[in-house]
Amino acid sequence: MTSFNVAVVGLGKMGISHMAIARRTPGLRLGAVCDASSLLGNAVARYTGTPFVQRFDDLMTMPGLDGVIIATPTRLHIDMIRKAVRRGLHVFCEKPMTLTIAESQEAVSLVRQAGVAGQIGYHNRFVGTFAETKRLLGIGAIGRVRHVLAEAYGPVVLKPAGGTWRSSAGEGGGCLFDYAAHPLNLMNWYLGVPEDCRGAQLPRQWSSDVEDAVYATLNFASGATGQVSVNWADETARKMTTRISLWGDHGKIVVDRQELHVFIGAGGAAQPGYRQGWTVRNITELTPHPAFYLRGEEYSAQMEGFAQAMATPSQPYVNDFASAAGTDLTLDLIRVAAQRHAEPPAVTATLKPAPVRRLTLFGRRTGHVGSSAT
Amino acid sequence: MDRILFGDNQFFGINHMSEDKARQQAMRFADLSAIVSTIADARDAGIRTFMCTTHERIGQVAEIVRRNPGEWGDFAFYPCMPYAHKYANAITEHGYLEAIRRFLPEGGLFDAALRGGKALLTRDAEKMATLLIDAEMKPYAGLSTPVVFLQNVVTDLLLGLGYDNAFRVFADHVRKRYNAEPGFITMNLPALLPVLRSVGVDNPIVCANVNKAGFRMSGGIEAYRQATRAHPARVIAMSPLASGALPAAEAIEWVTGERYVEAILFGASSAANIRNTVDLIRSSDARLAVAA
Predict the structure, then answer these.
(1) Distance CA B102, CA B47 (A)
(2) How far, in Å, CA of B38 to CA of A133, rounded?
(3) B292 to chain A, minimum CA–CA distance in Å?
(4) Interface with A, mutate which of B8, B9, B21, B92 (most A CBs under 10 A)
(5) CA distance B291 to chain A (A)
(6) Partner residue opposite A48 with nearest CB, options B153, B161, B219
(7) Which residue of A123, A247, B21, B117 is most buried, as measured by CB atoms within 10 A?
């Protein structure tokens, strides 16, 4: 099997996790790690033996590199994507892709022109239950879909918060970009990118600079409607809980990470493994073994997917840049709709870049946080 | 090590199959008394070991057991550390260094604080790790803790990162400071065993998913059999029912028949389920003994 030499950029929670998985994924070799913090990077190099490079530009001159795994704050993604693709490297990047639609579109054309793989870390598409839902919709198991409800709840911010990029709107923090992106990405996978957002609210509860919840109404080209209910200040969830409910002409699907509930109605046709009425299937039977497990099969499966995409970048693969740009478009649709009705100060706060502060290469001087909440 | 061990996932709203079920369990065990009475049910069914994460509520359970030695006798705890959510949340909120500072012992413990300060200055992760282990072990003071485990999220992270010597540091500290056997929980047993041997942790106690469905057995069932033949280990099978995906009788018969499995860990919420699972294990073991 061809083995690709990759480097992990950004040693926050997600970066460390990607590093561990990449080292153990067949088809990948971990050549280096890169982070603005030399304290952290040197410690990682000392204890794990993986070479550390402090400056991204120096990493770009490292010989023999095939790809990068970017897990830095969102604000830094586009520059790194540009430099990596210019060098002909394959790119795996944490979500969301960039902070603006124009930059996301630019990234899509860059990888397309260069003929390299570009994959975004929407790991839910590698969860067995969510992937099976995609398959069922594809074969029309519940007929034409009329409505989708996309939900996510979790205990991320439970008291007045500030201090990391996660709580800064200009750096891609906030419940919309950091949290709602996940259920929206799944919703788009199932129904396509919505055309319109007819109402959205981005209320604050604990955060001073960003929203703590996302509530929105969406419309799809097929005529289907969608609702989004996402709240990262929900203490009752042990960890992030993402659920998608779909109402079709001939049935209904309710799916989360653990369970898939499928109802096939009187007008629908039973499918292999799915009878008329309710069928419940679980993650335990819908999940293939990854080569290495850390935190969830989906994180390993997406790295295995990246290795495959690097081998055959012209073949279709899950979570390509174009699909992630569609999610960015949806995030923007909601943001713009919310601005229409919001109080002026809240509006400008979500649009303006973060107040000027001195930033290191990876955008922080203390604290080392990756780019995803999950 | 006993053949049957009692686990704690059901007490903390953890269910790998269903969030609804997890929520129902979280409600059922909202009161400490419900947790303690279920552990007592396990004890009354003949189980003598409770394998539990270092969750703060378990500290309260430990306190009750400590106060009632007459009732609990030689009942043992196998602490599993760390309770990872606590650290993950703190790192998200405060960054790595501040998070670690917050979990290190407070100034009153002069020796520990001094070592901690020096460890931070010299960036010595290994000294820091032993301090964190001590902080996690505090609630168990005075109780029987013959085996101390590293949780799978940490074991597998270290395994993935290639920080192999950390396993040795953990093993040495647990042996020296607590006179206990080190244990390692993992979802990657075939990858872990050769690494443990390479750092001199021989015949380790390893707790891993072992179930007929192959659920969360990285590499697959056959890889587990081969790995344990090549690298002797004392294996505790967890998730024998694959979180409820398998019928109990079939699942238990299969897991008791896996030769490398030395002990079986399970969790249950009712006295009837506990007794039923214990009976299944004992009768399956008896059948196998006769057959042999």
Answers:
(1) 36
(2) 37
(3) 32
(4) B92
(5) 32
(6) B161
(7) A123
Mutate to test the interface with A, among B126, B161, B222 (most CBs of A within 10 A): B161
**Nearest neighbour of A259 by CB, restricted to B14, B17, B214:** B17
Picking from B85, B77, B15, B84, the residue whose alpha carbon sits closest to that of residue B52 is B77
Residue-averaged pLDDT of chain A: 89
How does the average pLDDT of chain B come out, rounded?
A: 88
Q: How many angstroms separate the Cα of A314 from the Cα of each of A46, A83, A117, A162, B71? A: 38, 21, 8, 42, 68
Residue A251: Cβ within 10 Å count: 25
Q: Is the residue at B140 inside a domain?
A: no
Strand partners, B264: B4, B237
Number of folded domains in chain B? Answer: 1
Residues spanned by the domain of A262: 124-297+323-342
Residue A58: inside a domain: no
Asked if residue B233 belongs to a domain, the reply is yes
**Inter-chain CB proximity A291 and B219 less than 8 Å:** yes
Instruction: Determine, for residues B156 and A20 on separate chains, whether the beta-carbon distance falls below 8 Å.
Output: yes
Set of chain B residues whose Cβ sits within 8 Å of the Cβ of A369: 91-92, 95
Residue type, A164: T
Per the document, the length of chain A is 374
Amino acid at A122: Y
CATH number at residue B169: 3.20.20.100
- Inside any domain, residue B198: yes
pLDDT in tens, A135-157: 999 999 999 999 999 999 998 88
Say yes or no for a CB contact (<8 Å) between B187 and A287.
no
- Model confidence at A328, in pLDDT bands (50, 70, 90)? very high
Instruction: Find chain A residues with C-beta within 8 A of B163's C-beta.
Output: 47-48
Mean per-residue pLDDT for B48-55? 92
Q: Is residue A190 situated within a structural domain?
A: yes
What's the mean pLDDT in A245-264? 97
Is the pLDDT confidence value at B172 over 60? Answer: yes
Domain span at residue B60 reads 4-85+145-291
Q: Are A361 and A55 in contact (CB under 8 A)?
A: yes
- Name chain A contacts of B157, Cβ cutoff 8 Å: 16-17, 20, 294
Give B106-152 pLDDT, tens digit per residue: 543 444 544 555 455 445 778 888 888 998 999 899 999 999 999 99
In a domain, A304, yes or no: no
Query: Lowest-pLDDT range, A83-87, A370-374, B210-214, B225-229?
Result: A370-374
pLDDT of res. A355: 43
Q: In terms of DSSP bridges, do strands B181-186 and B49-53 run parallel, antiparallel, or are they unpaired? A: unpaired
Contacts of A13 in chain B (CB under 8 A): 88, 91-92
- How large is the average pLDDT for residues B209-221? 93
CB contact set of A23 (below 8 Å; sequence gap of 6+): A30, A50, B160, B161, B162
Average pLDDT of A190-203? 96
Number of domains in chain A: 1
Q: Which amino acid is at A48?
A: T
B219/chain A closest Cα distance in angstroms:
6
pLDDT at A156: 87
**Residue A46 one-letter amino acid:** R
Q: What is the CATH number of the domain that holds A285?
A: 3.30.360.10
Selected residue of A33, A157, A245, A292 to mutate for chain B interface (largest B Cβ count, 10 A)? A292
Q: Is A104 left (phi over 0), alpha (psi -120 to 50) or beta?
A: alpha
| Residues in A touching B162 (Cβ below 8 Å) | 23, 48-50
Residue A61 resides in a domain: no
